[in-house]
Design a protein that fits this description.
CATH architecture of the largest domain in chain A: 2-Layer Sandwich
Strand content of chain A: 15-25%
Helix content of chain A: 25-40%
Radius of gyration of chain A: 24 Å
Number of helices of chain A: 14
Shape of chain A: elongated
CATH class of the largest domain in chain A: Alpha Beta
Largest sheet of chain A: 11 strands, mixed
Distance between the termini of chain A: 49 Å
Number of strands of chain A: 17
Oligomer: homodimer
Chain lengths: 439, 439
């Protein structure tokens, strides 16, 4: 049998604890599968005395993650600290420079510094694996990097933030407002005290940046992602969507437009009978279309101790078996610069919800503005149908809710029309616009 | 760059053609990903002159697959002939004995001879990869073999035959009989002239046998699978299921009962709001539950040129990268003998549909027989609700349809009760029984 493979784990929060448990409990199975002993030789965490329900007595303790990362007693550095800068970045760089393999769950770090870190891993002939960074327990990194081969990928999209999906699912089911459900989610531990990172779409965008590179062979380019969160979605929008045969999901979408890759994160109306529409609660799902394989979707838990630890362990075992490949599936030098396809050119249908002042000619004037931008309307609903109990008081005494569904059109046309409609003074507040995707 | 990797492809039907196209069209991408040239050096097919829409002019032609499999010009033998015996088996054995890697889409061969062939591959230090054998373009073999690590798997189940799923989906949507929809499916090319292999559940069972070994580390044991096809499912059953909040799917299920692994293929009632219930038409899906990762489901196309060829190419590229592992994820010598958990002990709810003679006391007598076997009933429906146009003439003038839904009970109790009910003479023909799963 080969020499034992020694892990140094930095960060003993939820995921670190999960990794610790699996590596101890499943030692025999892991040895059988890989032909090697895999052990945790060193750990690093903030508080040495905290009770984590795991026995770290035989394990070397480091106070400094960078020292752990470069220690002679470590073959693989498992970075579970998080954050795009600071000690997480420094320790990963140190590990790669020291010729250590790295396994990380840190999407922010890779979304921002992925190109440089991947190049550094290759220079040093080591792995930089990150299955746990995208959609937790769903093996989507491996699927795109190793399974969907020989395909030109047309698009990849997904529900990659359980907090957002829980909030949207609950708002729809119970007809409650965003603020109300968010507050519950915070009490239940599904949302952070500062929820911006999740509900603002940033976490989804980090994951999307990595998926885009894997799927399209482009350099990671987080800064080019259009990001819109779920904060403005109302229970009325969800009810109207439902009446029209749609669900609203926060999607990360990367799509080959033929003249660049469009990357965007925003609330999206998807047909109620599409597989992604049925992904409820904290579950995640990632779907892609290849020119050969057609549509493939993977669904599962995107976060939590067991799912994320499972992904970390899978990455470790690939290394134990000697399966090392470039982080994004091809040499970093051959990743092509990301060429942004502008959102303004995005073509599709739109859902537009407005509070219109209740006076003669207002709706006609609005329809006229849309027509001037060559936007044709699939439907105008002046009194959106709403299931009992779902109504939300967005109406002011003198306004009525109007919902427009457009046929496929350009985003710039919609923005232009809405700008004029606001200027005309027929509506009480900024309209809400949700893109419709029939991917 | 390493030496070119040369494929010998036996069988140039739909899948072979697809593999040929991908290997030619995506040569540059494949070289970039693996650092190696991958080429098709030799082929073998029945008819040398057939027009397949691919250019085989530069490729060596063999009339004998076994000669191709052992040729010096071949590094990987790609077996796309099919069938559990004959030349498929002989050529795969010859290839492995000659130290050639094998990639195959042949589920029958592996379901029946998988243990011996896996051992042979290991003895010779070569790969025996079979992603294409289970659910076509869905990367479930890789997911179970490499991604769901460190988990005790509780169950794995799936819709793994597109023909059956197409038939059941269409029967439900259109309220038509099995025979009627099957005939259409044959005209559309979704079903074979002799459909027994698909609709009888045997194809699903072949795939299940492989999944079971991957998931539970047991020796392949196709012969121990309980198999029941979809031939007896009626449009009335589908309508009744729908009214009760269920869908009927042909599932292959492997489940750790704690005292052995239960393997079975049969029509199954699944809750309408479960992810597997939403898998429509020719799509396949495989779901599993791990003690760490929770529920994971993969959905996609289970057959056809592009999806199956994608899986074959992925297997080839793993070999090109030098990623070789035992066929079932662990050394064949450590696979434990399959210990059958008897179906008679299966515990769950049951749907039972009967044509009861319309005379006083018949239903009471039936209910009494169930009670004698300690079976408690969740509902008795004497006139199943059916949507307009869905009724099928299963009623005889003097009988009425009665549907029973039981609470969890043992299969042997249900069988005993139904035997007695038939003997009592209250029903016009053998009752239809469908197992309910809430996995």
């Amino acid at each position: 049998m080969k020499e034992a493979l020694k892990l140094g784990v930095a960060g003993l929060g939820t995921v670190g604890r999960g990794v610790f448990k699996i590596i101890s409990d499943q030692a025999a199975d892991i040895r059988e599968r890989t032909g090697r002993e895999v052990t945790i030789s060193a750990v690093c965490a903030r508080d040495r005395s905290a009770d984590r329900g795991i026995d770290v007595s035989g394990v070397e303790w480091f106070d400094d993650a960078a020292a752990l990362a470069t220690s002679d007693t470590v073959d693989i550095y498992v970075e579970l600290i998080g954050g795009e800068e600071g000690i997480a970045r420094a320790s990963v760089e140190a590990a790669l420079n020291a010729g250590k393999h790295v396994v990380t769950a840190n999407k922010a770090l890779l979304a921002v510094h992925g190109n440089e870190l991947a190049a550094l891993a290759e220079e040093n002939g080591v792995a930089l694996n990150f299955e746990a960074a995208v959609a937790g327990g769903i093996p989507i990194v491996k699927a795109v990097r190793e399974s969907i081969m020989g395909n030109r990928i047309k698009h990849v999209f997904g529900i990659m933030n359980g907090t957002c999906n829980y909030i949207l699912t609950t708002m729809e089911r119970e007809g409650r407002s965003f603020e109300d459900v968010l507050s519950d989610a915070q009490d239940l531990g599904y949302a952070e005290a500062d929820p911006t990172f999740d509900v603002g779409g940033f976490d989804t965008a980090h994951k999307l940046a990595l998926l885009t590179s894997l799927a399209f062979g482009t350099q990671v380019s987080f800064k080019d992602i259009y990001i819109e969160g779920i904060e403005k979605v109302t229970a009325q929008d969800l009810a109207s969507a439902s009446d029209l045969g749609f669900k609203i999901k926060l999607l990360g979408v990367a799509l080959d437009t033929g003249h660049g890759i469009e990357q965007r994160v925003h609330p999206t109306m998807v047909p109620a009978d599409s597989p992604i529409a049925d992904v409820h609660g904290v579950f995640n799902a990632v779907a892609l279309r290849g020119d050969q394989v057609g549509d493939v979707m993977l669904e599962g838990r995107g976060a939590g101790e067991g799912p994320t630890a499972t992904a970390v362990v899978a990455d470790v075992l690939d290394i134990a078996r000697g399966f090392i490949m470039p982080p994004f599936g091809r040499p970093t030098s051959s990743l092509v610069p990301y060429k942004r396809a502008g959102m303004r050119a995005h073509e599709g249908g739109y859902y537009i919800a407005m509070d219109v002042h209740d006076r003669p000619g207002a709706v006609a004037a609005i329809a006229q503005r849309m027509a001037e931008q060559q936007i044709s309307l699939e439907s105008i609903i002046q009194k959106p149908l709403m299931a009992g109990g779902r109504e939300e008081s967005v109406e002011k005494p003198d306004t009525m809710p109007v919902v427009l569904i457009t046929h496929d059109t350009l985003e710039q046309s919609v923005k232009a029309a809405l700008g004029q409609i606001e200027e005309d003074g027929h509506i009480a507040r900024t309209p809400r616009m949700i893109r419709i995707e029939k991917l």
